[in-house]
Amino acid sequence: MKIKDLPKDVFQRAGEEVQAIEFAYERSPDQDSPTPAAHPVVIVGAGPVGLSLAIDLAQRGQAVLIVDNDNRLSMGSRALCFAKRTLEIWDRLGVGDPMVDKGVSWNVGKVFHDENLVYQFNLLPEARHERPAFINLQQYYCEAYLVARALALQGIEIRWCNTVKGIAPDDHGATLTLDTPEGEYQLHAQWVVACDGSRSPVRNLMGLESKGRIFQDRFLIADVKMKADFPTERWFWFDPPFHRNQSVLLHREPDNVWRIDFQLGWDADPEEEKKPEKIIPRVKALLGNDADFTLEWASVYTFACLRMDRFVHGRVVFAGDAAHGVSPFGARGANSGVQDTDNLAWKLDWILKGRAGVALLNSYGAEREFAADENILNSTRATDFITPKSDISLLFRNQTLVLAKDHEFARRIVNSGRLSVPAVLSHSALNTADVDAFAGQQVPGAPLTDAPIEDHNGNTGWLLRQLSHEFTLLVFGEAPPWASQLAHTTTLSMGHDLRDVEGLVAARLDAQPGTAYLIRPDQHVCARWRQPSLGAVQAALATATAHSV
């Protein structure tokens, strides 16, 4: 696949044109090889998760092959809400700016009950972060920008219309059987990463399964194109007059498109509810009979909270919806998947470069299984609150909403979808426990918080963009003379290399002169000290890489 095959104006194209882009199937030399060709990494699935992983690995110098059974971008909005942490990861991958430029940024959500506003909340009340709490961006735009970036990098090959039909794991990787328009062929991968969605063919071929809970309710997603003066906020209604005894969610998207989710109930017929003659009256009940709109896309879904027991099976690794699934309320699906790749890429890179053993790769499983459990817990609680299944549960929910109008304690109970936040990996085996007292949220295991800085040339910017793609030792004050002895680690001096222009870096990290933070390649804090020593930092690096040499 060559970059010439992607339209040069993909960043300016309208949604209808982007969704119509098709990628040509091309015959690979591997199909003529007498024995299975060898590849270090094969990623199955060219969605946001697979593409993000491939870009991260390629930027680290790895050769990556992506295979996908389709040759088009996603249809409809699908994954829509992308969180601040995901945007920060995409900044590092070189796609954050186009995502934010095209997307609709928002921080404020409102909760309604019947006709009344119960309360509103701000997901990013603290100022001076580069990225908003969320952007809304249709998945087809997201995929288009990721494909464009992937094809601009050396080391990434994408094979469209290549469907995985068989997988045979072994001690050195796995042999994949791929079906194409010209027949089947095989290749061998040192590592296979399945990013092939909730129905994961790779998972099924290996006889593995996801376990959990399927919720007995149905929801309609409708993408509606219209001009409206609604503010750019997340609006959620419980039992509104225009859709009694159910819930409704409204989001703004780019291109004057609005995403509306209607709760339908378990008895709803999915095929009937997708028909325009069923959808249009529901939309008019919300917007008014005189509303001028067109229906762009619709889908009816039933959701589940599921995950695999383990994400790592020898040299076959699962990420994104292939590994875990949650309800759409809370925007935890795609965001969690991209954060999977952020965790996985640097660890796989270290193993491929011979710097670490499989224990480091296994830590991906431990850390991201913990994150999946956290997401599933929040998603399950949200779904139970949104769709009460007994009279007692319904009474509890409605009385909570009444109290929430005037009482803060009740607002903490209301759950219209606790929105995605990154997991704090506080119990990770890769952390070094504090020996000094610190205040604040930047504990070992937490993703580093952004803040404005100025570099040594006087250019203003943001802290996260200054971090190394390897480890970073962030020191407040003069860098210690032994810092140059640290392998695979860049030392940044806050005061020499960077200037804390507003004092927010020190405030957010509770830093004093001499304080140092050790930050992993995925921008998670793994250790911190008031006065570090060479031995302490080297020991923390060994711990953070699962005692690699």
Helix-and-strand structural type: alpha+beta
Fraction in helix: 25-40%
Low-confidence stretches: none
| Helix segment tally | 14
In the CATH scheme, what's the topology name of the largest domain? FAD/NAD(P)-binding domain
Explain this structure:
The chain has 549 residues and is α+β, with helices and mostly antiparallel strands. The protein folds into 3 domains: 3-103 and 136-212 and 305-375, FAD/NAD(P)-binding domain, CATH 3.50.50; 219-302, Alpha-Beta Plaits; 452-544, Glutaredoxin (3-Layer(aba) Sandwich), CATH 3.40.30.120. It contains 14 helices and 28 strands. Strands 1, 2, 8, 9, 10, 11, 19 and 20 form an 8-stranded mixed β-sheet that branches. Strand 14 and strand 15 form a beta hairpin. Helix 2 runs parallel beside helix 9 (333-352) and helix 9 packs antiparallel against helix 10. The radius of gyration is 24 Å and the shape is globular.
Short structural summary:
With 549 residues, this protein is of the alpha+beta class. The chain folds into three domains: 3-103 and 136-212 and 305-375, FAD/NAD(P)-binding domain; 219-302, 2-Layer Sandwich (Alpha-Beta Plaits); 452-544, Glutaredoxin (3-Layer(aba) Sandwich).
